[in-house]
């Protein structure tokens, strides 16, 4: 998602916040799950082997950390993630990543509906400018805030990474 053709984005410090949370989780011995989008549509930036389908070096999984490959926006759909979490009695989840109004929102909604206790670190997520249904441009920051508002209370508690650290 670092490709310039993805468009203008918000929250330029998100990767630093994700890295800080990742470091804290690892230091505390907490389980970490990495999600990778692998598209089944040739030409997609998420097609296997493309840069968009790879983890950023600073956020790459370590040996022993669980990796979920997803093929749609929701990381729970046909991935085995729910089963993996239940096997380990993991009920509380913290979400970070990209993009807020797509994969993050879809996955958090599913997790909330499945009964998980969800937190979303707002400053550790980001999205991109995108037009609305009428073709009117909408800023990444507005889309980010609306997606988080959609999640707050009903599916998750939205917080800042400092609250989690």
UniProtKB/TrEMBL annotation:
Isochorismatase-like domain residues = 10-162
**GO molecular function list:** hydrolase activity
Entry annotated with the keyword Lipid metabolism: no
* EC number(s) reported in the record: 3.-.-.-
EC class, as a word, reads: hydrolase
Which keywords appear in this protein's UniProt record, sorted alphabetically? Hydrolase
- InterPro entries on file: Isochorismatase-like_dom (IPR000868), Isochorismatase-like_hydrls (IPR050272), Isochorismatase-like_sf (IPR036380)
Q: Output this protein's name.
A: Cysteine hydrolase family protein
